Amino acid sequence: TLSIDELNNELMEEIGILHPFGQENPEPLFCMHKVILSQKPKLVGSGEHFQFSISNGIHLIAGIAWRMSEKIPPINTEIDLAFNLRWNYWNESRKIQIVLLDWKFSN
């Protein structure tokens, strides 16, 4: 379980040490509890995927959910996330990206 404050470059460097991922070395799976999406997720691609973001109080952390457009989480509601973390390279910059695997309403 991670807190939103732990989503930082240091964690990403530690994950990088664990590469390469594969059958004998699965990619780390993380969870985060009681996350609130403050903005409505945006459908992308052919409409099968959605993008979202969460805030750690300082900046936004972007997320992508592949083939999950039929399971878009609500905004302003506490949810729990299961995800992988990856670097997203775009326009000559590198940012942390959540790759959402699943979510549920928080207890």
Give the tags:
mainly beta; six-stranded mixed β-sheet
Task: Describe, in plain words, how this protein is organized in 3D.
There is one protein chain. With 107 residues, the chain is mainly β. Helix content is 8%, strand content 46%. The protein has one helix spanning 9-17; strands at 30-36, 42-44, 49-55, 60-65, 78-90, 93-105. The longest helix has 9 residues, at 9-17.
Q: N-to-C SSE series?
A: HEEEEEE
The computed structural class is mainly beta
Distance between the termini: 15 Å
Give the percentage of residues in beta strands.
Answer: over 45%
Uncertain segments: none
The largest sheet has its strands arranged as 1-5-6-4-3-2
Q: How many distinct beta strands?
A: 6
| Helix share bin | under 10%
| Gross morphology | globular
Please give the radius of gyration in angstroms: 14 Å
Average of pLDDT: 92
Question: What's the total helix number?
Answer: 1
Give the SSE map.
Blueprint: H1 9-17, E1 30-36, E2 42-44, E3 49-55, E4 60-65, E5 78-90, E6 93-105
Parallel strand pairs: 4-6
Antiparallel strand pairs: 1-5, 2-3, 3-4, 5-6
What's a concise summary of this model?
This protein is mainly beta.
